[in-house]
Design a protein that fits this description.
20% strand; globular; alpha/beta
């Protein structure tokens, strides 16, 4: 049943990655909306009201870290768990209120499990997951 597991906003400039994440989350019962960059994320987040946001770091217009900063400064989005899904998972990826980091390439089942946990538990202490 769509939406039974929660709502996820997937933010990545790669259409292939957005589709990969979307399909795997939808197969697990999540309702999914996608955005191609941080600017689209900020436009969509209030209307969609996701339980979790996954986002890449390297994106046009508004990159992932600046998007995280803006989401954490807004009281309406402060409590939404944020998962960085990026090939650039250095020390800076965990800064600014990111709740988890998953390195590309990633195992789709690992991403789905992480999103499921964050939907159920909310914002945990930050942690990093390697491929």
């Amino acid at each position: 049943m769509p939406g039974a597991s929660g709502r996820v906003l997937v933010v990545d400039d790669s259409q292939v990655i957005r589709q990969l994440i979307r399909v795997n989350l939808e197969l697990d019962g999540f309702e999914v909306m996608t955005a191609a960059d941080g600017a689209q994320c900020l436009e969509a987040v209030h209307a969609f009201r996701p339980d979790v946001i996954t986002l890449d770091l390297a994106m046009p217009r508004l990159d992932g870290l600046r998007t995280v900063d803006r989401l954490r400064l807004d009281p309406r989005t402060l409590a939404i768990p944020l998962v960085v899904v990026s090939a650039s998972t250095g020390a800076g990826a965990c800064a600014g209120g990111v709740d988890a980091v998953l390195a590309k390439p990633f195992e789709p089942a690992e991403l789905v499990g992480l999103v499921r946990t964050l939907c159920a538990e909310g914002r945990p202490a930050s942690r990093t997951l390697a491929p």
